[in-house]
Design goal:
The chain is an alpha+beta fold and 256 residues long. It is built from 5 helices and 10 strands. Strands 5, 6, 7, 8, 9 and 10 form a 6-stranded antiparallel sheet that branches. Strands 1-2 form a two-stranded antiparallel sheet.
């Protein structure tokens, strides 16, 4: 059964973010971040609601993140066609979704919602819908941990100060292996915190490896060059609102 709806802010299950080590948030893979997050949250208390997950970027003055280079925000790349009619926030996962290996992890993909194009580490062509932004958020951020991340950043991250800062930080970090033992965690669910056709903020739910708990974090994307692109903050921060929760209630889950 799929859980649907929005996170229950103020229910007591959420915790205010207490850990703001920029180096980890900027450059570590999301699952690796949660390994550290889990250790710290065991000694943390307090309840509340997630931090602001707007993740607004501050691009260079000449860059307009809401328009493509030709001045047409809806122009799609050659050969990219999707059904963009469903503009409602998702309450279920796509019926045709499946898991596709990315290094030692698994990422949800869908023929109808995206990605529809696979070019090495760049998985692209997502539906211009809330669900399309969810699939893009998973695919783009997951690839930032592996070899080929620089091509992903160049092609799938909004240009500007945020992208430059992300590159500077990520360059100093090592890559996760593309083979070997699978990650102990995995994507468990999601919710769309906010959406319009120019911008979307998506929150992940990930199983914390070795713990009976889950971690959350949100990312922001913008519609640019006819596809969803990751939009880090001006300082290169990709994830915000990181916290630990006890379950997936209030989120759409990937379970079937």
């Amino acid at each position: 059964m799929l859980n649907s709806g929005r996170p229950q802010g103020g229910s007591g299950e959420w915790e205010q973010p207490f850990w703001q080590q920029r180096g980890w948030i900027l450059s570590a893979g999301f699952l690796l971040v949660l390994l550290v997050l889990a250790g710290f949250t065991m000694i943390s208390g307090g309840n509340g609601t997630p931090a602001d997950a707007s993740g607004g970027d501050k691009p260079a003055p000449s860059a307009d993140p809401d328009r493509d280079r030709g001045g047409r925000p809806d122009a799609r790349p050659a050969g990219c066609r999707t059904d963009d009619s469903d503009q409602a926030k998702p309450t279920t996962a796509p019926k045709d979704f499946k898991w596709k290996a990315d290094g030692t992890g698994l990422v949800p993909v869908s023929k109808t919602v995206g990605p529809r194009t696979y070019d090495g580490p760049v998985w692209s062509c997502f539906a211009h819908t809330p669900m399309g932004s969810v699939m893009a958020a998973h695919a783009i951020t997951d690839h930032l941990s592996y070899p080929g991340w620089r091509e992903v950043v160049d092609r799938q991250v909004v240009p500007g100060a945020g992208r430059d800062a992300l590159v500077a930080s990520r360059t100093t970090a090592g890559d996760k292996p593309t083979s070997g033992e699978p990650d102990g965690g995995g994507y468990a669910g999601f919710t769309v915190l906010s959406y319009d056709k120019a911008k979307s903020t998506v929150m992940f739910v990930v199983r914390v490896p070795g713990k009976n708990a889950y971690g959350t974090a949100s990312v922001t994307l913008r519609w640019r060059d006819g596809d969803w692109k990751l939009a880090p903050d001006a300082d290169g921060t990709v994830y915000s609102g990181m916290s630990q929760i006890s379950g997936t209630k209030g989120f759409v889950t990937w379970e079937v």
